[in-house]
Amino acid sequence: MAAAADAAGWSYRGGPRDEQSALLVHFSNGRLQNSEDMNFTLYKSKDTTNPRKKHRRILTSETERLSYVGNNFGTSALKCNSLCRYFVGVLDKDSGQMEVYNAELFNMQPLLSDDVIEDDLSDYQSKSYREKVDSCIEAFGSNKQKRALNSRRMNQVGNETLNMAVTRAAENIIGAKGVATLVSDAAQDDVEEVSLFLPPCHEEADKPENIYRFEDLISSAEYEALQAPAAALTNLTSEEILKKPEEESLCSFVLEELKSMPVDESSRDHKARCLWFLDTLIKFSYKKVIKKKCPMGPDCPRIINKKLMKNFTALTYNSGRIQNLISASMKAKITAYVVALALHINKFQIDLTLLQRDMKLHETRMLDIAKAMRLKISKKKGLSGLGADEDHKFGTLSLPLPSFKPSGGQRKRKKMD
């Protein structure tokens, strides 16, 4: 150690006392629990001719875990040494006299070995960013962060075990049932999943009007409540109907049906109620998040508002509160009920293209819903004034019902020569 000190321009003094001065130490990272096991080494500058350097001192100390170093110069030196003087008194108990020595305060800071840093750095650079963050949490993280880290690692092990178990189970099922059976089961699951969003379908019905029963779409209490708002449609004159497209207050399907209202008062009232409810359903589908208890306004009967909120919205949790949301599946359900009601209005044959545009859907989405409802799809020219020069898709509900094959199934593979 003395040779290293000489090479660096420092002389080894051996102990904590420097001639007629004493050294006081303060550890920056805590207090000493046992000072008897501490060994100190003092280094003094050999440049005695330079007045600025001849008083420089370096004090070192070692414990089982860390090495410490302190000095009386540079940025790490304590400024209090230059602002005041410290003294240490040594009392001789036999003579009762005290000797007073000049004292200097040193701030001892932990010293990290350069070799350790280089060894750790080589391993550190090979780690991923996630592993580096985890290492920092292990070393310096709070108890909460360490618990979260342990929990994540346990979940990761659990997920790997679960994935292996699922893979083995899938292999066993494929080996036992075969691919063809599994594809058939998946298709049946698709049929059952689609049926959750469709009106109740009575396949054993003897007439088209009993397949999707009217009372499953509108209850008797709801039908009575529709009388007041539907009166505005019942009393429309031919001139007022022609002006409605300019107002854009009603959807295209409703406007077309208003042109052929029955003369009979009872039939006219029935159709007006159905059209008003259908128009309300279509407008309700345009919404995303429902923030009001009466989403369709005060003119809509309370029982209808309640039906819309209960049957055609999904509950979601957002920003600390529960909200009603019209999700993609709920919009599909609204579309299915609109199609079923339109079939009752128009003698079980409807212009799907017209409804698709009113619902603001893609054609494939509308056709998928129509096929799921067992409609027979045909193509012909549209009605006059509404794209008469282009082909429209029409849906017809008739017996016997065609079988439903969900889209998205496996395509036929071409044979390789």
Describe this protein's structure.
The protein is an alpha+beta fold and 417 residues long. It folds into 3 domains: 10-111, no CATH class; 129-193, no CATH class; 208-396, no CATH class. Helix content is 45%, strand content 18%. The chain has 16 helices and 13 strands. The chain has helices at residues 2-7, 80-83, 114-125, 129-140, 143-177, 179-195, 214-217, 220-225, 227-234, 238-247, 252-258, 265-285, 302-311, 328-345, 352-359, 363-372, and strands at 10-12, 21-27, 39-45, 57-62, 67-71, 86-91, 98-111, 289-290, 314-318, 321-325, 349-351, 376-381, 391-396. The strands form 3 sheets. Strands 1, 2, 3, 4, 5, 6 and 7 form a 7-stranded mixed β-sheet that branches. A 3-stranded antiparallel β-sheet has the order 8-10-9. Helix 15 packs across helix 16 (363-372).
Give the overall shape.
elongated
Largest sheet: 7 strands, mixed
DSSP summary: helix tally: 16
Order of helices and strands: HEEEEEHEEHHHHHHHHHHEHEEHEHHEE
Question: What count of structural domains?
Answer: 3
Q: Average pLDDT value?
A: 81
Uncertain spans: 1-8, 12-18, 115-119, 409-417
Strand residue content: 15-25%
Structural class: alpha+beta
- How far is the first residue's CA from the last residue's CA? 85 Å
Calculate Rg over CA atoms: 44 Å
Secondary structure: number of strands: 13
Helix content: 40-55%
